[in-house]
Amino acid sequence: MFEVQIKIGLKKGISDPEGANTLKALHLLGFNTVKEVKTIRIIDLIIDEKNRDTVKKKVDEMCQRLLTNPVIHTYEINFKEQQDKGKMI
Amino acid sequence: MFEVQIKIGLKKGISDPEGANTLKALHLLGFNTVKEVKTIRIIDLIIDEKNRDTVKKKVDEMCQRLLTNPVIHTYEINFKEQQDKGKMI
After folding, report:
1. Closest to B47 (Cβ–Cβ): which among A34, A40, A85?
2. What is the pTM for the complete model shown?
């Protein structure tokens, strides 16, 4: 079993309408010191495979075929047990 | 200037339709070894304040008033420079 985390962001120069609208709404609520808002999506997968390299290859394929749009997105694949990033929500 | 990262996930027991549909789609594409898919949203903010405690308090207020739905979401606020989590996408 592997726990894999995929972090999906936008390529440089691609506009982030969700971020822009959040920024606008925050300003409307009076939070004027907020200068920038960026949104990122994270997908956590649990995969039942024995081989780490197979997992890496498969997740990469998933990203390209379904999870991301290669025209606008960048993605980063991390194995969770490697990182010791503390508890996830 | 502070860079703050808000991680928004779902409370335990709250269903994650996006994750469930992604799982279905991955199975349809033949990735049958995927057992679970969870989605998390991340919002990165750049805030122009001097005082760290003020930032913490304001971000907490933003989460409660706009960014999250306290009925279904959990959130975690992290200051980015503290963590040394490496480069973001």
Report:
1. A34
2. 0.83
